[in-house]
Amino acid sequence: MIISSRKKLGIMEQESLLSYSLLHDIELSKVLTDHGYNYDDLSYRQNPDFPESPAEYHNPQDYDYPFNGILTVSFFSGAGGFDLGFEYAGFSNIAAFEISELFSDTLRINRPNLRVFGPPSCNIDMRNRELITDILSNDLNIKAPFEGVFHGGPPCQSFSVAANQRFAKQGNKFKRVGYNHKDFGTLLFDYIWQINVFRPRVFIIENVVGLMTIDNGEQWSNALESLTDAGYELITPIFINSKFYGVPQSRLRLFIFGWLPNKKTLTLSSEDLFEVPCYKPLIKPLDKIPDHITRNHKAQSIMRYMELRYGERDHLGRVDRLNPSIPAKTIISGGSGGGGRSHLHPFIPRTLSPREAARLQTFPDDYVFSGPPARQFTQIGNAVPPLLAMKLARAVYQSFYA
Known about the structure:
This protein folds into 2 domains: about 10-55 and about 290-380, DNA Methylase, subunit A, domain 2 (DNA Methylase, Chain A, domain 2); about 60-275 and about 385-400, Vaccinia Virus protein VP39 (Rossmann fold, 3-Layer(aba) Sandwich), CATH 3.40.50.150. The chain is built from 12 helices and 10 strands. It has helices at about 10-25, 30-35, 80-90, 100-110, 130-140, 185-200, 220-230, 280, 300-305, 355-360, 375-380, 385-400, and strands at about 70-75, 90-95, 115, 150, 200-205, 235, 240, 250-260, 315, 320. The longest helix has 15 residues, at about 385-400.
C-alpha cells in the first residue's frame, strides 16, 4: 500500500527549501512555515509500495473485560504501563510506588483516584524497606497473605546491554555494573523482600534480559532461591517479545511469575496470529491528540534522512527509518537524567513525536505524559506496553482467580 499526507512537498521543491535554509542560515521550521508547510509535508526520496497487513492495531481501551475486584499494587510504577494493563483487565489498582517526581506526576494526572506514593508528596525509596512496609500495612491495610497481585519492574539501566553498548567498560558512563550500582543494584532484592513479607497470591517481576547474565547469574539464582524458600512456585523465567502479543514494536523483556501453591499453574495466552506492523498506529489521525510534538530538525538532518530507505540507519544521528511493514524497533528510554530517543517515521523524514511513540507502546491517546518531549520519551520507553500487560493480567486472572 502507499501512504500519503494532505499535501506532500515534491522532492524538487523540498530540496529547494532545504538549500534555501542552509544558504541563508534560516531555521528550517521558519522556512517551511513561511511557505505554508510543516515537517509532516516532507518526503523521503523513496517511498515504495508495501503489502497491506491483515493484522489490526489495538490498545487496551478496545477491550471490555468486567471488573473483578482483585486488588493490585505496583512497584517502580513508571508512567503506569503495567497499571493500565491490569486496570483494563478488570483488576483494581489501589496504589503505585514511584521514586521519580516526573513519573508520579503522570500517574496522578491520568489516574487522580490512584494512591501514588511518590514525590513531591512523599519521598519513596524501595531501599527503605521499613518505610514501604509501614505504608503497605498501615496506609493500605494490607496483611499477609495478600490475596491480590504485586507487580513491578525494578530500574534496569545497570543490567541493560542496550543502554550501555556505546560506552567503554572502563569509562565513567558505563553503567552495566548490575547489583553493584549504588542506586539500582539492590532494588530487585528490596522488591522481593516486600513480596516475602506480604505474600501476595501472585507476583510479577519484569526486567531486561541482561538481568540473568550479570555476575554469572549468581545473585539472580539467589533471588529466585529466596522466593522458592518462601514457598512460592515459579514459572521458568521467560522472555516475552511484545510483537507476538499485538504490540507494533519488537520489545524483548524478561518476566518472572510466582504464586502461592494452590493446585493451579500459570497458563499464558497464545501468541497472536499476525504481527502488527508499525504503520498501523502511525497512519491514524493525530488532530487534537495530546503530546504530538515533533522536533524542529535542521535542514542538514532532513537532507540525510530523506535519502534513507525502509529500515536504514542514519549513523550520524543514530536513528533508524522504521520499516512500515514490520513492528517498530524498541522505543529507547534513555537515562534517568535525560530524554529518550525515538526512531524516524516510516513515511516522513523526521523523528517520531511522543504520541506516535506512545501508540507504538499501545498507550491510549487520552493518556498524557508530564514534562517536555524528551522526558516524555523517557517515560514511554521505560513502560511495559499496556496491551501486553493487559494480556498477562488476563492470564493471571484466568489461571488463579477465575
